[in-house]
Fold this protein.
Amino acid sequence: MTPLIRSVIAAIVACVVMTAQPIGQVAPVVAWFCPMHPDVTSAEGGKCRKCDMALIAGNPFDTRDYQLTLTTEPGAVTAGVPFKLRLRVEQPESREPVKEFEVVHDKQYHLFVISQDLGEFQHLHPERQADGTWTLDLTLPKPGYYRILSDFLPRGGAPQFLGRTLVTKGFAGDIGSQTARVEPDAVLKKTAGSMVAEVQLEPARLIAGQYGHLEFTLTDAKTGAPVTDLQPYLGAFGHTLILSEDLVDAVHSHPSEWRDGDPSRSSGGPKVTFEGYMPRPGRYRSWTQLLRNGELTTVSFTFTVLTLEEASR
């Protein structure tokens, strides 16, 4: 579970749960909530006041992390050689397998694979098996250390964003000393397929512990005309993963321009805005996926998040 979700839910619990609960127990509170904004809750179904996504019934007040086990077949993974990745989700205390998941942005399970140097990025969707596990055929392009991020919502539970690590066979480096040292982009403007993507940070100097926004302005790479024909991809006009340099803090964000779950009521550009909460100062990299004319493109930007003191100088 991300630090943002954990802090938001903790605040809600403090207000809602009025009776003492035994240690390790969760208050038996079930509500309707937004899977993208767990702080938006309701006593009945409806839509999120922030993004208009349909509310889901569950327990947003449950701050426990579900158990996630990652195995590979074969056990030792070799770079460049296909292998099978298997993921098993279990209840927090009973360790019973979870077999029911909610659909969030057209999929029940979103998986991100990122190399330690932040040079390799994949956004994938495993397939659910009869025994409740999730499997995926995967190939890692080069030897090294990879971060595997799982984003899912167990039915009746709270959103989960859990990270695991995977090291390839033959990797002899020191994981700690080889943490990525990425440089912020001097110019936040790049070509992404048929488009040019320019990002404006809001605020201009992002501050740790506060919300920040990445506002994309999209133009056609050939004509320079504003792009207004983005296509829906997995239930949104874009997906962004934001990850800290040390692979610890991650945010999976979607644009706020989507309205009422109906793409015909949205512009599909040229402005697309993603919201993120970076809990610590440091350097972060974002990967944004956009679909246009049937072509899915990924564009990445690297930026710095400051402490409040640094930002006020």
About this structure: Residues 3-16 form the longest helix (14 residues). Residues 47 and 54 are 4 Å apart (CA to CA).
